[in-house]
Automatic annotation (TrEMBL):
Originating species: Rubripirellula lacrimiformis
Highest taxon, organism lineage: Bacteria
Keyword field contains Signal: yes
Phylogenetic classification of the source organism: Bacteria, Pseudomonadati, Planctomycetota, Planctomycetia, Pirellulales
Gene3D superfamilies (UniProt xref): Tetratricopeptide repeat domain
Key words of the record: Signal
Official protein name in the record: Tetratricopeptide repeat protein
Extent of the signal sequence: 1-25
Length: 451
């Protein structure tokens, strides 16, 4: 089996296909997937950040032992959970994840029954999506007493965080009933929780209720969530995302339609864009077109929303075969957003289909610049592979598409590129297989296999 084919099979083994990239900016609200907790929800020691400054500088200089010694005086500070956990957290914040985990491992060898150590490892398990490990650690931590020096506020934060992590692990293990009970317990016992945690808990509760097919309770949790942060959209808009993620397309369509009706004037443009995005993704461009006709002005974030509307118009034009109009829109957007991989990908694919060699060369420049700017973009590398293939560089196309498969699951467009690469290489059987994958995949269908 070739290395390239092995990469393809590995990508498929991870899961089915991701949605193609339709949006280029986070201007319409989305619900994070399981395990994506708010980044600032766990910062119990943030109040004493000034005291940690010298230790942070020492760690940055590679003097970890000195940093640990500088924190000895804070061992019994009422707002410091554990000095070793603080050291590890500072390492994680610097991106030194391996060192941070190793520090925790060594700390656990000296005093393994520390609540803060258990909580830190539980947090790690959730971030690494090791649900059973996190669940076991949460159960063990719940049996440990906090140190005497902890303040009442720190004890409360740690207890709430532990309950949240346990609930998330129940979700990860598909124990939806237990997850729902844990989230409801958090809400009833913690009326003063922080905004980030409130969001995490309500999203988790909504997701758990949805999985239990209690859609009314899910909508109620989303309504509570939106009441505290109107920028998230409308409850029906967020419920539609759950339906869409579960491939309940008619229900998602109905919820998106309701979301427009319930949105006030300020939120309606964002909701219309979310609905249009859904319709394009489900290959209903005719229904999406009316939602994208009106320019967006005179509201907060109007420029970002308007650019998103124009981008979706360009995608719509591509789907309808109006390539010149799509190119005109994308060229202007690319000038305004040169670092956007989504815009660059769409534009490069259109330009490389031109008969003018100078324009085709420009497509290559854009695709190459895109992967230089964002080297971890699977779609960016796939687009570069397609551009190279259209320019006759078979080896370069093969290498770029192989890199794309290393970075993530193939989008619908990527599957098309792979089918054409195999067809050009004379590998008919593999080309036919990729065409079947392309036809079965989700996302906008902008390529016609019959062409």
């Amino acid at each position: 089996m070739t290395r390239f084919r092995s990469l393809v099979l590995a990508a498929f083994a991870i899961g089915f296909f991701l949605h193609g990239s339709i949006a280029f900016a986070a201007v319409t609200s989305t619900i994070g997937s399981l395990g994506q907790l708010s980044s600032d929800a766990a910062q119990a020691d943030a109040q004493v950040a000034k005291l940690l400054g010298p230790a942070k500088n020492l760690i940055a200089a590679g003097r970890v032992t000195d940093a640990r010694a500088s924190l000895d005086a804070l061992k019994t500070h009422p707002e410091i959970s554990d000095v070793d956990v603080v050291i590890a957290d500072l390492m994680f914040a610097m991106g030194r994840n391996v060192e941070g985990q190793q520090w925790l491992e060594r700390a656990s060898a000296t005093e393994p029954q520390r609540l803060a150590i258990h909580l830190a490892f539980c947090e790690l398990a959730v971030r690494q999506r090791r649900w059973f490990d996190g669940w076991v650690l949460a159960r063990l931590a719940a049996k440990l007493d906090p140190p005497d020096h902890w303040s009442v506020a720190l004890r409360d934060r740690a207890a709430k965080r532990l309950m949240l992590l346990k609930a998330v692990c129940c979700e990860g293990r598909a124990d939806w009933t237990m997850a729902r009970e844990a989230y409801e317990s958090l809400l009833s016992s913690s009326p003063g929780m922080s905004d980030p945690m409130n969001r995490d808990v309500n999203v988790g509760l909504a997701r758990s209720c949805f999985q239990l097919k209690d859609y009314d309770a899910s909508l109620a949790a989303l309504t509570t969530l939106v009441s505290k942060n109107r920028t998230l959209g409308t409850p029906q808009q967020l419920l539609a995302q759950f339906y869409e993620q579960s491939e309940m397309i008619p229900e998602a369509d109905g919820a998106y339609a309701k979301s427009i009706a319930e949105a006030d004037e300020d939120r309606r443009p964002s909701v219309r864009l979310a609905y249009a995005k859904f319709l394009l993704h489900t290959n209903a461009p005719a229904q999406a077109k009316p939602l994208l006709q009106d320019p967006i002005t005179k509201i907060e974030n109007a420029k970002a929303l308007e650019d998103e509307r124009l981008y979706l118009q360009a995608v719509l034009a591509r789907m309808e075969g109006r390539l010149e109009q799509s190119q005109t829109i994308l060229s202007k957007l690319h000038q305004d957003h040169p670092d956007s991989v989504s815009i660059a990908n769409q534009l490069a694919v259109i330009l490389v289909s031109n008969e003018d060699e100078a324009i085709r060369a420009r497509a290559l420049q854009i695709a190459e610049a895109s992967v230089r700017n964002v080297s971890g973009s699977a779609d960016g590398w796939a687009t570069l592979g397609w551009v190279r293939l259209r320019l006759g560089d078979l080896a370069g196309a093969d290498a770029s598409l192989a890199q794309s498969l290393k970075l993530g699951k193939p989008s619908r467009d990527t599957l098309y590129y792979l089918s054409q690469l195999k067809r050009v290489a004379g590998k008919t059987e593999e080309a036919d297989a990729f065409e079947r994958y392309y036809n079965a995949a989700k996302g906008p269908k902008v390529f016609n296999l019959a062409e």
